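Project standup — Tuesday

K.O.: blocked on the structure for the chain from last sprint. Re-posting the sequence here as requested.
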Amino acid sequence: MAAGEKTPLTRDVELGGGGKAAVRTRLRIDNACCEAEATLAKKTLHAIAGVDKVSVNVVGRIAYATHRPHLVGAQALADALNEHNLGASVAAAPEAADNVEEPVDYKELAFVAALLLGLALGYVIPSLLVVVAVGGAVPLARDAVRGAWLQKRLDVNALMLCAVLGALALKDTGEAATVGAVAAFARFAEAECLRRVRNALADASASEGAQVRATKGDGTVVDADSLIVGDVVIVRAGERVPCDGVVVSGKAAIDESALTGEPLPVHKAKGESVSGGTVATNGFVKIKVSATRAEDAAAELRRLVDEAQASSTRTQEVLQEFAAYFTPGVLVAAMLVALVVSLQRALVLLVVACPCALVLAAPVPAVASIGAGARRGILVKAASALEALAQVSIVCADKTGTLTQGRCRVVAAGGPSGKDALRLAASLEAKSTHPLAAAVVNEAVGCVGEDVAGGGSLAEDVRDVNVVAGAGMAGTVEGRAVKVGKAAFCGVTTEDWAPKHPGATLVWVAVDDIPSLCLAIVDPLRAETPRALQTMFGMGLRVAVLTGDTPAAARAALEATKIDTARVDVRASCAPPDKLAYVNACREGGAGVLFVGDGVNDAPALAAASVGVAMGAGGTAMAVDAADVALMTDDVALLPAAIDLGRTCTRLVKQNIGIAVGVKALVVVCALAFDLALWVAVLADLGSLLLVVANGSRPLLDAAPAPPPAETLYQATMSPVVAEAPREPATLYQATQQTPPRAPSPPPGEFVVYYAAWSQP
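H.V.: unblocked you, prediction finished:
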């Protein structure tokens, strides 16, 4: 394949099965202009053996088909659609497609302008009215015959053609010319409006100006699509990272807003991962490619958004079913009116028989909302999740890693032999992956504990490691017996010398069976949590915190938010089955339940909730896969924004239904009450369609990335003076490699809240 040639999207969706595994193919349908074509495409593909699932995005003119390639190939799917003149082709993957704005159809514009000009002159030169009527009827007849013959359906073109021919039969050439010209203008206006929506969606959902060139480590410039895993590329200030990779040298500030919606750059240094599609705002780095451009994070995000826009809501399906009966019903009514009342009024009913505005009432808001959410860092995996978000009445949140930072750290220590015991304990805890163990290690070798540990190294002689579930760890370090864990496990008989810190977890250390050290460890609150909780309360939502931590730790975290803790239902010491049971109980009570979490233990509750939301930036793969919505940053304030997005989408759908049905009902009433000009009915139908599309596209107006979160605070005491610290970087060492401040020990009995200003490595 030539360099730069776009690769069609055909991806495996099953892990096994060899050549019989199902694949998902992306198809472009150029002749899809309304839900009628979408329905036809679904019926056509579902009738083919080997096709398992089909979804169509009529706004974006894209379809996804899950099929068995040993039974039917990708090109065979396109050929089947083209038998119905749908203009189908196997499309390039969204990450490989050219990011080119769809142009205006100037030929169609010139044709419409000529008809309108002829209509205006026709009242001076009457013979021109016949020319305009015939000119407007020709494309209507062409498309009507094509729809009836190839697509086996009666569409709006046939209805408008009947209206023009009926006016000519009544010898009203002015009416016929007006209907023909206005119908052509309506068709162009609909196509132009949807073109603008597609272009806006491309801006909102895709990374800006996809880069196709990359500089390799030896200085040669190559096509980014030709990079393979293991290649080393150079990224300078102002350049886009071509693929996912790991920094091997240099430092840079990376703008990740295209993926996460986070507007502030993140500092990257050696050993840290970077994502394709992000931009270096300053600095210089060499990156070792870890994923090709077709498989990197940016490509996956665009695929997920593209597929979500091709999904449908239940409301959309109901409207499609209604439209299937609406048009035939109006046609029968028109024939009865022609026989009983008059042909003129029957022709007006024919004009309003097209349900285009009604069937677009739901798809446009859904597609626009998904695109707008992606721009803000809210990845909605399916359109149905938007409806579920709108029905949420209770939010269930995990504490650790969701409301808190998920990075435990030592805030106080006490004991007769602190420095030596800390080093031994950290050497043992280095063999564990528990968050508390990481806090002990970090306290010993750097960061906040640098002054205590003197930056010393860990012991290498660690043997006989034994993990006691629910109690702690034991082992031999440099020939000495070391235990780390709960008080009883370490043989503690008195806790008088333990540090006092509200809500902290106490970790004890015993050396040679003698209690020697006690560490108070907390998981700091996210700076955005208080604002997010207050916003959800303001939206009328109930909030429950389900955590596996102790009740004291859970209450302390909520008290740090300065909100009324009585408004939050706190369930502490929850195992995964307990969280699942709580979610199921709420759903059985009729509540719409949203569960937000980030860990493996949250996956069952995420799957069981009405809407599962995963903290996508720091969440586990299992949590993200089980969720319906993923927040692409750790900003929990995006949670109420996601709920509001769902409510806005649902509200716009209801408004669109009201517009579409209301205008048609008004036209029908007027047509039955008195003689209504045909062109008035055409304009009314066009107006309702344009209003539906414009109103449904409103979420794209708010598709800008969310504003920066509030500055992270580092509060040493509860004194009136609060010192501001730098915004928390993604890594310990920023470009300046500053040493983070050490938390002072709190005075006895004084309540202290620490908002983390620095991350741990």
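K.O.: great, moving the ticket to review. The longest strand covers residues 245-255. The CA atoms of residues 580 and 605 lie 5 Å apart.
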